[in-house]
């Protein structure tokens, strides 16, 4: 089995200010002091797990999280652009309050998640577009590293969209994005291709 532990990066100032980060890579998207502490605490929680590889999004907030993790997990990280956050198009850098006021019907009223096809019309990526690029990366790993346990550092909407893909579930805003430095575990049988979501958005507890 190929096992993937997906970690969402630590808290950023943009998270605090409820700004759509997307693929923005500025000082506002760097980790806060709390975000760095979250990453350090997660590293300690994962230290007993034997990972074969660490792969990260190249965005700075993911790199910072990865740096904290690899202080404890003795592996040299790899980086892949396909693990970046969704492109939010014209909404990138804007606040949730401003965007939701203008595009109220583009969001689920309960979860406040953007609906699956609402980002593409403003120049961003639909859930399907995210799933295609990250799904391609995932398939390559299963073929090339069928027995590996991989620690992956990525982003909220990216992890959520991939979880839906693993479950063969329809694109939906009913599933909230995972929290900062939460862990989501997916396993794939390289022989049958069967996919399993072992847990989603686990913040504390036994990760073994």
Explain this structure to me?
There is one protein chain. A hairpin with a 6-residue loop joins β5 and β6. This protein has a single domain, classed as Phosphoglycerate mutase-like (Rossmann fold, 3-Layer(aba) Sandwich), CATH 3.40.50.1240. With 208 residues, it is α/β, with parallel strands linked by helices. α2 crosses α3 and α5 packs across α6. The mean pLDDT is 96.
**Biggest sheet overview:** 6 strands, mixed
CATH topology: Rossmann fold
Any low-confidence stretches, pLDDT <50, length ≥5?
none
Strand content: 15-25%
CATH superfamily descriptor: Phosphoglycerate mutase-like
So how many helices?
A: 6
Would you kindly provide a brief summary of this structure?
The chain has helices at residues 13-16, 33-46, 60-69, 96-102, 127-144, 156-166; strands at residues 2-8, 53-56, 78-79, 149-154, 183-188, 195-202. The model has no long low-confidence stretch (mean pLDDT 96). Helix 2 packs across helix 3 and helix 5 crosses helix 6.
Structure keywords:
Rossmann fold; 6-stranded mixed beta sheet; 208 residues; alpha/beta; 16% strand
Task: Walk me through the topology.
Layout: E1 2-8, H1 13-16, H2 33-46, E2 53-56, H3 60-69, E3 78-79, H4 96-102, H5 127-144, E4 149-154, H6 156-166, E5 183-188, E6 195-202
Parallel strand pairs: 1-4, 2-3, 2-4
Antiparallel strand pairs: 1-5, 5-6
Helix pairs in contact: 2-3, 5-6
């Amino acid at each position: 089995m190929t096992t993937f532990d997906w970690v969402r990066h630590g808290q950023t100032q943009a998270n605090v200010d409820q700004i759509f980060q997307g693929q923005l890579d500025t000082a506002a998207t760097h980790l806060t002091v709390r975000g760095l502490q979250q990453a350090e605490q997660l590293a300690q929680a994962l230290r007993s797990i034997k990972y074969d590889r660490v792969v990260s999004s190249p965005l700075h907030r993911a790199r910072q999280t990865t740096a904290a993790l690899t202080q404890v997990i003795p592996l040299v990280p790899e980086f892949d652009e396909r693990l970046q956050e969704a492109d939010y198009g014209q909404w990138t850098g804007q606040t949730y309050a401003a965007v939701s006021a203008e595009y109220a019907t583009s969001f689920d009223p309960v979860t406040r998640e953007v609906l699956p096809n609402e980002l593409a019309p403003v120049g961003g990526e639909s859930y399907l577009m995210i799933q295609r690029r990250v799904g391609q990366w995932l398939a390559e790993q299963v073929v090339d590293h069928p027995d590996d346990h991989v620690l992956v550092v990525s982003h909220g909407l990216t992890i959520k969209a991939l979880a839906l893909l693993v479950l063969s579930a329809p694109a939906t805003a009913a599933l909230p994005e995972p929290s900062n430095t939460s862990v989501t575990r997916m396993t794939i049988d390289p022989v049958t291709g069967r996919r399993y979501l072992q847990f989603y958005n686990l913040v504390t507890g036994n990760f073994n």
